[in-house]
């Protein structure tokens, strides 16, 4: 089995609700210590061809890998093996077929029965999904996997909008706090404007990147009033 990159195994080892999934500062520090490099976009990190999208509200991490079907399956099986190697930390809790027991060439990969694999730990839930190449509009999405790490006390619909919190983070938060804030999708217009004029260039760049994303997705800036 192809070994996982060190940053992926280090992230799995660091996953808990007390440190990594505590707040923006702990997220950024934990990811950096695990070997992930921050990028311009808020909450995004990269390492060895893998990508991380992380959020501080509520603290969570999603790890992505694109590639050939075989390489993605090998990576997904390696992630599952790493999780199952620590039964003292993780309880396997999936309802669908346990595809982590399949070989890379198993014919069942092409079925519609592939579902998320789920592990529960102390205050943390980890889910793993993989899919082959799929149609997407005029083109196709490559084979990919997604590894999602979140707190079990976070509602399935996420945390509600909190304008007072956003303004407090803007006013009192660190550069890392504000960098993460720039990536939140539902912010008051005054907070968006302040982030785009932040004294720190990293925050400004993240806010400008978010504005570009909004313009591409919606045809214009869409900050909440």
Structure report:
With 225 residues, the protein is an alpha+beta fold. The chain is 35% helix and 23% strand. The chain contains seven helices and ten strands. It has helices spanning 6-14, 24-33, 69-84, 163-172, 175-181, 189-196, 201-218, and strands at 37-38, 44-47, 50-56, 59-67, 91-92, 117-121, 124-131, 134-136, 139-141, 143-151. An eight-stranded antiparallel sheet has the order 1-2-3-4-10-7-6-5. Strands 8-9 form a two-stranded antiparallel sheet. Helix 5 (175-181) runs parallel beside helix 7. The longest helix is centred in the last third of the chain and has 18 residues, at 201-218. The protein is globular and about 55 Å long. The N and C termini lie far apart (51 Å).
Write the layout of secondary structure elements.
Elements (H helix, E strand, L loop, with lengths): L5 H9 L9 H10 L3 E2 L5 E4 L2 E7 L2 E9 L1 H16 L6 E2 L24 E5 L2 E8 L2 E3 L2 E3 L1 E9 L11 H10 L2 H7 L7 H8 L4 H18 L7
Antiparallel strand pairs: 1-2, 2-3, 3-4, 4-10, 5-6, 6-7, 7-10, 8-9
């Amino acid at each position: 089995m192809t070994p996982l990159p060190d940053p992926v195994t280090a992230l799995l080892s660091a996953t808990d609700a007390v440190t990594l999934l505590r707040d923006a500062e702990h997220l950024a520090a934990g990811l950096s210590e695990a070997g992930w490099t921050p990028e311009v976009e808020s909450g995004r990190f990269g390492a060895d061809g893998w990508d991380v999208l992380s959020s501080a509200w509520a603290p969570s991490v999603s790890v992505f890998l694109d590639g050939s079907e075989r390489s993605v399956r090998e990576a997904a099986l390696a992630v599952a093996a790493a999780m199952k190697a620590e039964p003292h930390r993780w309880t396997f809790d999936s309802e669908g077929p346990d595809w982590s027991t399949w070989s890379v060439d198993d014919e069942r990969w092409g079925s519609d029965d592939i579902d998320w694999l789920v592990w529960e730990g102390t205050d943390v839930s980890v889910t793993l999904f993989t899919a082959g190449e799929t149609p997407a509009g005029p083109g196709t999405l490559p084979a990919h996997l997604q590894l999602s790490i979140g707190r079990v006390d976070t509602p399935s619909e996420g945390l509600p909008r909190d304008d007072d919190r956003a303004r407090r983070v803007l006013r009192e938060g660190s550069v890392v706090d504000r960098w993460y804030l720039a990536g939140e999708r539902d912010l008051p217009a005054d907070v968006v404007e302040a982030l785009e004029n932040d004294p720190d260039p990293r925050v400004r760049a993240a806010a400008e990147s978010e504005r570009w994303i909004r313009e591409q997705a919606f045809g214009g800036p869409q900050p909440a009033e």
